Structure prediction request, 709 residues.
Amino acid sequence: MEEADFELRRVLGLLQRQLRLILIVLVVGVGATALVVFSLTPVYQASTLVEVQPRDRNLLDPSGDFNTGASDMTRVASELEIMRSDATILGVVKKEALTSDTEFGPKIGFLDRMLAFLQIRQPVLPDGDAALRRVLQNFDRASSVSQVGLSSIVSMSVRSTDRNRAAELANAWAQTYIDAQVSAKIDSTLNARNVLQARLGQARAAMVAAEQSLDTYIDGNLARIVGETGRADVADLGGNLRDLLAEKNVLSGRFNQAEAGLRQKNWELLTNTLQSDALRELERQREQVAATLEKAAEGPAVNLRAELAGIEQRLGQVADQAVADLRRAVSDNQSRETDLRQRLRTAVLSSALPADMLGEIFDMQQSAELGRQQYQTLMSRTQDLDAQATLQIADSRIISPALAPEQPAFPNTLLSLVGAGVISLAAGVGLAFLRENLVGGLLTEDQTEAVLKLPVAAATPRLRKPPQGSLADLMLTSPLSQLPEAIRRIRVTIDQRLRRFGLEAEGQKGAIVVMVTSSTANEGKSTISLSLARAYGASHKNVCLIDCDLRRPSIEAMAGLPSSDRLLAYLSEDQPAIGTAELVVRDTQPGVYIIGAGERADVPTDHLIGGPNFARLLNQARARFDVVILDTPPVGPVADGLYLAGYADLVLFVVMSGRTSQTEARLALGHLRTALRGHEPIVAVLNGQERASARYKSSYGYSYYSDPS
Prediction:
């Protein structure tokens, strides 16, 4: 539980330290999203709900609407494809005149405008089929069809920048689909009817041929039938049939002549054919008026023409009635013939005919009966299809017409801002972790301890270098300010760590060696080294501070001492001409002695640091002083510090707040641990913190920005 609380505190501390970065990312993300969202043109989406019947609806068979089966979902899937087909959308395009619509009509694209702007190619609006294809593509992109769950309800949606237009197009799309469905059913029914009608003519001809063959056979063999059976009634029926056929021929001839005369308005032919007294009288009157009309003058001729027209009109009426009577007579004759033939067939079949004759008659009768049944079946089906063609209804229906939406479907302002806030917050937290643990600088003591896995002795404040002297002079001039207090905390931490590791005890012989280093240059390690030396001197200890940064020495200038190259000469000679005592210079702080490096060396110095002369110098310093502080070069760019790490009892690792790369710091620590003799402690110092500890207020009027050393 304590370990979990510790991890939670670490995470909360990280978020607190990186709160500024997180808020910046959040504000930028939400602000950019808001700028984009409010600059976009709102798009509205309207949806029409259509129910697709799983079976074809037939008003002549209502029970079929309730049939269901396993193919219901297949039917719905098929209808979805029909809804989004080009044929259906083309109906909407024509119905709503979308080819001239400003939103869905063909427009010059962005690429074409850019090419025109660059004077590469002049854009041309498509026309004809190309324009129609462009409109179909635009509508297809702005529309969608989806099944609602596993139901037979389909949502047909259209998006438009005009809310009312979106609803109009969605409803027009649904209605076009339903109209096309009805038209397809009517066309299918009429096509089936046409096929049956063609077959109906063949069936009728076959039926008539079968009937005629039977009648012809009976008529031709009537004498034999009478002779074989001896039935007088059959002979009588045959005679009656012959008389009826003769009468039929006369009536049919008169009827045909009467119809021809009526069509041609041949009143003389009609009168002679119909033998009607009324027609004769009217024809006589017509002839008299016509003859008088030929001799009459212009004035009386008008009245005669009217009279002639009236007579001809009455002639037509009387002739129509006479032709109708003649038609009925022909029909009655046909009925009597049919009845008489049926009676004759029955009588013949009931007679004791020879087997061969009976078989032939029976076969012909069966053929005629089958032809009649087939004809009646086809006739009935044809009539049903005619009725269905006029009574077709759609298998689908609109259950919820689209209404103009109140809110745009895109962009969803609230959802976009909330989503941007969540994503930006997550991105900010991710960047915070990345900056904290990988690429960012070290800002606080907790972060430094968490990232480097080192105890942090103190965090020194960020102060500006004074015009004269150095920040290390605060140990002398302002011992109660923030920097001296932080240095004293470093000294206490060093003593505690040395005691914990058993490297310092009462009465111990030989000085402790503290190595002060950093990962890169300009992190303030020289200021820390001189300040720490003065802090030990103030606690009545003899301290030797050795400037081991031979490539960039700074301790002498920082302490206000004259520059000397005696150390470089001492380390360079095989047999030094001077003793170690001549290298030591007393500092302003009592108990502090400094061995400076003089001017910058222009040659590699790692062999000097790793040579026997430096080891001899350090051994003599251990024997003479209580504390030896080594101000070493940064371990990242040069190898000198790695040689010096082998002499150290404790390493003080300085990092500059907000500037030292975490990667460089961890890499430098890895090199240091490899270079140590054993497991000597390493203690970190966070230098130049922006918000220093408020335990003490600085009485010094400058802000520390950077230390070039």
